[in-house]
Amino acid sequence: MFYRPEQGHGLRHNPFNAIIVPRPIGWISSRDGEGCDNLAPYSFFNGVAYSPPQVMFASTSGKPDGSDTKDSVANIRETGMFCVNIVEYAMLEAMNVSSGIYDKGADEFILAGLEKVRCETIDCHRVADAPAALECRLTQIVDLPGMANKVVFGEVTGVHLRDDCLVDGIFDILRFNPVGRLGYRDYSAVRDLFSLARPDD
């Protein structure tokens, strides 16, 4: 099968998200200029540089209230900071609750029953029990072709690692089973791990 996106795929559901899998989930916490907290998951997320450490996430839609983007991006544009919380399998339901479309000013931490704690390097909250969290300062927001496609880049200014996830100096992902986004309504949890040496190792 071959199709051109502008001509449609002819399938029951768009296969694009099912091709690029698994995608890590950036659970983005932010605050607006009035101090209202927001928490939302984004599966177009990844690390993009080591030194200094930098991450990105993309938002692909606006809101019914007429905003040109989601609350997360609007908050970050206003304050210049955000935190990436890593989603473990035990927090799957809370993450899903926080993905809902709520009125501006709604606190998804409260709606999802999550404890929050202040970050160290930015004026923002993070998910208290997340296995890891990356405090970030905005470097740039890039507008992409399309109605509301925006990519947010941030430099990591602080890193939190949950103590029980550190084993012999290694951040052990099998201690918390990170959740990945697949296509359609599907997710996956990392439960298997293997290592592969590079040819030049």
Can you offer a commentary on this structure?
With 201 residues, the protein is mainly β. The protein has helices at 16-19, 71-79, 92-98, 108-111, and strands at residues 23-24, 26-31, 37-42, 45-49, 54-59, 81-86, 116-118, 125-127, 132-143, 150-161, 166-167, 170-171, 179-181, 187-189. The strands form four sheets. Strands 3-2-6-9-10-5-4 form a seven-stranded antiparallel beta sheet. The longest helix is centred in the middle third of the chain and has 9 residues, at 71-79. It has one domain (22-185): Electron Transport, Fmn-binding Protein, Chain A (Pnp Oxidase, Chain A). It contains four helices and 14 strands. The radius of gyration is 18 Å and the shape is globular.
Q: Classify the oligomer.
A: single chain
Strand fraction: 35-45%
What coarse outline follows from CA principal-axis ratios? globular
What name does the CATH topology carry?
A: Pnp Oxidase, Chain A
Sheet of most strands = 7 strands, antiparallel
Helix content: 10-25%
Radius of gyration: 18 Å
CATH architectural type: Roll
Can you tell me the CATH superfamily?
Electron Transport, Fmn-binding Protein, Chain A
CATH class: Mainly Beta
Determine the mean pLDDT: 96
DSSP helix count?
4
H/E series, N to C?
HEEEEEHEHHEEEEEEEE
For the termini, the CA-CA separation is 39 Å
Q: How many beta-strand runs?
A: 14
Compact summary:
With 201 residues, the chain is mainly β. It has helices spanning 16-19, 71-79, 92-98, 108-111; strands at 23-24, 26-31, 37-42, 45-49, 54-59, 81-86, 116-118, 125-127, 132-143, 150-161, 166-167, 170-171, 179-181, 187-189.
